[in-house]
Sequence to fold (283 residues):
Amino acid sequence: MSPLFGVYGAAAVILSITSLTSASPTLHSLRNAGKNLAPRLETNYVDCNDDQKSKLGTSFADAAALANIAFNIDQASSAFKHYLRDEDRDQAKSLWSAVASNNDPTNPSYTFSVRCARAGDKGCGTKSLANTDPRPQDGDTVREMKICPVFFTADETKNSLDSRKYDGDKRGSWCQLGQHFKDFETAGHTLLHEMTHLDALGASAGVPGRQDPDGFLSHGTDDVDGFGDSYVDSARGLLNAWVNDPDSIEPDSLKPWQNAENIAAAATEWWFIKSCGFTEIDL
Fold:
């Protein structure tokens, strides 16, 4: 599987996890609908040039917009049923709410830094878009999301939600028929995925923590491995295993809502179903 996203240490590809807390989900107030969200403060960016800051600002706003619309996802929709079970709903909504709430710099519920990595950075492979540190914050030292050079050049992250028009089945439109999930990927999708890895986000959302193999408690999501050739394939495969072959899954294994791509893909799919009137998006 191509390492398009990632977290530090062994947390990136661990299936079996142990839930250690049972905090009630926190549903943050979603004060703004759609994309009318404030940009992140520039002081959160490290080693990023102006063009990179502009790209990231748009992408974080798109991540918040995707999370905002996903908060009201129809559980009967294919966008939900491709990635989540009914019992995943509350935790997923809490994560989407926390993603959206962070984009308001006047009242952030948690903080993290964003660093633009240089070519050759050891935390970035040749295909890595980003890496996010899932460890709990150490005192006043916030954890870091590292944006890899490929993020600014890859096909998966070249588009924003406004890169194309939403004008029906026309060539070049977001709503053109016959497209597949990869055709709807945006930089905002990637950052939504990455944000859910943050322990601070998960703790703010009130979701249960889990013991990381590296020995720390994390409230962030993980990246499942072994269910498909891409992150979206794996997300749907993980859900399928839980729903159709639960005996193959250990009780303490990664649940759909605990996999970053299940949260991000459901949000992206719901955005385009709502925006274009689709009933389903194929892989």
Observations:
- The longest helix spans residues 50-70.
- The chain has a mean pLDDT of 85.
- The beta strands are 45-46, 113-116, 130-132, 144-147, 210-211, 217-218.
- The helical segments are 50-70, 78-81, 89-102, 187-195, 199-205, 231-244, 260-276.
